[in-house]
DNA sequence: ACCTACACGTGATGC
DNA sequence: TGCATCACGTGTAGG
């Protein structure tokens, strides 16, 4: 009564055969181990354990099937290891999260961009779009420690973002990644390091609604960096 | 002494603590079960099985941790069941796939909408959006294309590094990484993007010997980036 | 010989 | 009472 065996051909299939054979040909004898059933008046307990065994077997099979299916929907799996499958799946989901976030941002940009006349800032905006991808190597993170974040306006459609952090390893890179992920219309950016501090100044083109959200967006982007 | 599972109600992460305690406080005695080591002249076999036990314990723990982490990145988990976690993860990935496809279609539509005068901006956009995503999945790298690299001296201990590249995906981040990896004494740095070009200017503090090697170090660092 | 990764049977726990 | 899920120790096969 076991539903479906889809393919499986190239994986843990060895198990399948064993299992099938067992299920069919096992003269299941619980006295195999010389057990006398404990704590039960009749022999019902032995059949109980027998049921438990087959039940547990099904559970394991289901789990493996699921794991197998999970592997199927995740591309670029290198190791067939159970733990690795799950790990890759996690990484892939996070990857998709990032993609979705970026693409969504791009749509917003495109939609708002259609109303305005496309200007030179479109170039910059597009150039800075899909860049912050992936962080490959070390899982060791050095969170960005923000000392000051100031957003001020100069002119009608231009804002200056000024952020000061303590200079640690990779802070500069991460800072760049943050600003790229925000899909801002960056006119020019400047980073200065001195006495353990890192000061980044960014000229951004932003309309009123963008201005209003600018500071908050930066803050949350930096905060979300610290999570991973 | 039966370290009974208290609660469990909130889930199995409680187990982690128990397990840790076990590892620390177990006076691990393989004779607990009254085993005499079978089929071995000395007692080495028993220690082997003991190692196997602790190893297996670690494996289970790792698997559960991964599963726990997987659950963390998947929203709307109803059942805490192991199999259900994997199932939900699969469903969620497929969901994200659908979203991604739908959104990409949306972008295409938007872009075709502004197809009048296909100018450099549109070209830039195409390059950085779709191809950028695919490339990144397949781990394709976009090497830094250096157009000009100039190192000049200003003053006794200060040099100016001026580098111009074509602006592609991740160029800015990679450029930052390169300079980060060189461990230079950077006084100030400026990055400006303009018409598909990326211009980075760095003020570096360097003595004579460092000056002499500066340009070469930068070149090799960029070149070595393209290897991977 | 060691180490990894696995499936298995078993008892426990909670519904 | 059964039924589901789990952690555990064990034997084993492949690298």
In short:
Two copies of one chain form a homodimer. By secondary structure, chain A is an alpha+beta fold.
Task: Summarize the structure in words.
Two copies of one chain form a homodimer. Chain A has six helices and four strands, in the order ααααββαββα. The first copy, chain A, has 228 residues and is α+β, with helices and mostly antiparallel strands. In chain A, a hairpin with a 2-residue loop joins β3 (185-194) and β4. In chain A, strands 1-2-4-3 form a four-stranded antiparallel β-sheet. Chains A and B meet through α2, α3, α4, α5 and β3 of A and α2, α3, α4, α5 and α6 of B. β3 of chain A pairs antiparallel with β3 (185-194) of chain B, so a sheet runs across the interface. Chain B binds a DNA duplex (15 and 15 nucleotides) through residues 2, 4-5, 8-9, 12, 15, 19, 33, 48-49, 51-53, 55-57, 59-60, 64, 81-83.
Identify the overall geometry of chain A.
Answer: elongated
Low-confidence stretches of chain A: 1-43, 116-139
**Mean pLDDT metric of chain A:** 68
Please tally the β strands of chain A and state the result. 4
Query: Reading side by side through the largest sheet of chain A, how are the strands ordered?
Result: 1-2-4-3
Major beta-sheet overview of chain A = 4 strands, antiparallel
Sequence of secondary-structure elements of chain A: HHHHEEHEEH
The gyration radius over C-alpha positions of chain A equals 29 Å
**Number of helical stretches of at least 4 residues of chain A:** 6
The first-to-last residue Cα distance of chain A is 45 Å
Quaternary structure classification: homodimer
Which class best fits the helix and strand makeup of chain A? alpha+beta
Beta-strand percentage range of chain A: 15-25%
Helix fraction of chain A? 40-55%
Query: Largest protein interface?
Result: A-B, 60 and 63 residues
């Amino acid at each position: 009564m076991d539903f479906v065996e889809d393919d499986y051909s190239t994986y843990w299939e060895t198990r399948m055969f064993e299992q099938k054979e067992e299920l069919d040909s096992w003269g299941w004898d619980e006295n195999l181990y010389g057990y006398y059933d404990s704590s039960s008046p009749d022999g019902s307990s032995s059949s109980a354990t027998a049921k438990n065994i087959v039940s547990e077997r099904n559970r394991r099979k289901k789990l493996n099937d699921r794991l197998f299916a999970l592997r199927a929907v995740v591309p670029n799996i290198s190791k067939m290891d159970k733990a690795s499958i799950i790990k890759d799946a996690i990484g892939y989901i996070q990857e998709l999260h990032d993609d979705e976030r970026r693409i969504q941002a791009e749509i917003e940009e495109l939609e708002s961009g259609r109303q305005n006349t496309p200007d030179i800032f479109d170039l910059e905006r597009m150039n800075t779009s899909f860049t912050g991808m992936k962080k490959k190597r070390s899982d060791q993170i050095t969170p960005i420690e923000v000392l000051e974040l100031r957003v001020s306006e100069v002119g009608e459609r231009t804002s200056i973002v000024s952020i000061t952090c303590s200079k640690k390893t990779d802070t500069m890179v991460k800072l760049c990644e943050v600003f790229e992920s925000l899909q801002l219309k960056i006119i020019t950016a400047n980073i200065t390091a001195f006495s353990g501090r890192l000061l980044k100044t960014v000229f951004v083109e932003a309309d009123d609604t963008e201005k209003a959200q600018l500071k908050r967006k930066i803050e949350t982007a930096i905060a979300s960096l610290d999570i991973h």
